[in-house]
């Protein structure tokens, strides 16, 4: 399968994640972020475990729970804190810094070279998200900013470590392990810090099904597949598709306005994602293609 196909498939995951804000605000009860995160992760993880019938070996348990914390438990909790304490645009812009963090984390943990073009693409993407989402009266809260930066760092660490630690199983099994671990971490926290959920309506159940089955199980399997096949910096740039999708859904579904500045921001984000794929691509060493051709002829 070509690299372009891998990029397009992986981009589906953050594009679907852009629906999270719409589904959360329109279909789920407010005020239960940790409980809803646990209900999003744990049932999806257990379902995938039942389908794959593949449990992590004991030697992998520490890594699986660390990845489940970075990619789901810690990330989702900090994401909700940032969303509650900051305007949505500010929280999303801080989250977009994840692409920049991945570049430097990959250098330290994977030995990946830092390319000027990749850094420029990540910076342009952050600027584009800011134009797309931040209004002139955006208020800044120190705790919210810390949570937003912490969430971006958590997801960045999870992305890089998911590339560094590749178990000999399918992406679906790897996703099942992490979702289950993240859900098991979130469940006792939800029971401690939040009151019981009210009776759920059909709309609530439909929203949870979408976030769990599609927004977690299916999309994270696609995401971790991309993490295994693509450069970490290239994968992280695709995450900027999420705020673009969120704005488009708000415009189409909720009738929200879209200003020329926001349109320019969307164009900048899409351009930075496209250029980020080129800048992060690992090129073969000189003469490698000719050597491969000679080997194929032989």
UniProtKB/TrEMBL annotation:
Q: Which domain of life is it from?
A: Bacteria
Question: What is the membrane topology noted in the UniProt record heading this document?
Answer: Multi-pass membrane protein
InterPro entries, per the entry: AA-Vitamin_Transporters (IPR050638), EamA_dom (IPR000620), EmrE-like (IPR037185)
Keyword hit for Metal-binding:
no
Q: Where in the cell is it found?
A: Membrane
One Pfam family linked to the record? EamA
Q: Which UniProt keywords are listed? A: Membrane, Transmembrane, Transmembrane helix
Annotated membrane-spanning segments are 7-24, 30-52, 64-84, 90-110, 117-137, 143-162, 174-193, 205-223, 235-254, 260-276
Residue span, EamA domain: 7-133, 143-274
Q: Which SUPFAM superfamilies match?
A: Multidrug resistance efflux transporter EmrE
Q: Does the keyword Membrane apply?
A: yes
Q: What GO terms fall under cellular component here?
A: membrane
The UniProt family comment states: Belongs to the EamA transporter family.
PANTHER family this protein is in?
A: EAMA DOMAIN-CONTAINING PROTEIN (PTHR32322:SF2), INNER MEMBRANE TRANSPORTER (PTHR32322)
Identify this protein by name: Probable blue pigment (Indigoidine) exporter
Q: Which organism is it from?
A: Marinovum algicola
